[in-house]
Amino acid sequence: MPASCPIITGAGSSFYPRLRYIVIDEVHTYRGAFGSHVANVFRRLLRVCEMHGSTPTFVCSSATIGNPREHVEALLHNRFRLIDRDGSPRPQRNLYLINPPVVQSHGFASYRKGPGSVAVPLIHEATSNRIRTICFLPCAAAGRTPASQRPAALSRSWQRASSPTAADCSRTNAGS
After folding, report:
1. CA–CA separation, 39 vs 6, rounded Å?
2. What are the beta bridge partners of residue 119?
3. Nearest 5°: CA angle at 54, between 49 and 58?
4. CA-CA distance, 62 to 72, in Å (whole number)?
């Protein structure tokens, strides 16, 4: 065994024989030169486990990679089974797509009202009735308003423009 992979003795000597699972979260981050280094570390770990009579199971997760099985098999040089269904319980979801109404201006011109004219009252009603609600906003600046002021702030934001300015977004994101 190489010196770079020490064998634990004494109080820690029962670790390797009892090791059953190795969990790798965000496995998509292990690519390139760093991924190659991590792959070598895991190969060394498996050799030590084998010397101690254990064969741990890898559990890998990634929500942002298109080819998770191929990536993990290339990384760890082993066969994997892909589990791509979410079996966790979740409450009922209702999705609404809203097309704001077309209105006529003081003259003869017609225009479509802004999305806030429909969305803000709906969000206000839902939150007033304690309905769990997700609202997607144009940038983080619009979402950093305290909850007690949010409906009014959103109304003002949507009345003055359809979304916060790019300056609002960059100024807010720079501080986070």
Report:
1. 18
2. none
3. 80
4. 10
User: What's residue 89's pLDDT?
Assistant: 86
Residue identified by tokens 């906003």 is 137
**Burial (0-12, 13-18, 19+ Cβ within 10 Å), 35:** middle
Angle, CA of 166, 124 and 119, to the nearest 5°: 50
Residue with tokens 């890998």, as numbered in its chain: 60
**What's the predicted TM-score (pTM) here?**
0.49
- Residue 154, Cβ neighbours under 10 Å: how many? 21
- Helix or strand (DSSP H, E) at 110: strand 110-112
* Rg of the chain over all Cα atoms, to the nearest angstrom: 27
Q: φ, ψ for residue 80 (rounded to 5)?
A: -130, 155
Q: Tens digit of pLDDT for each residue in 29-58?
A: 999 999 999 999 999 999 999 998 999 999
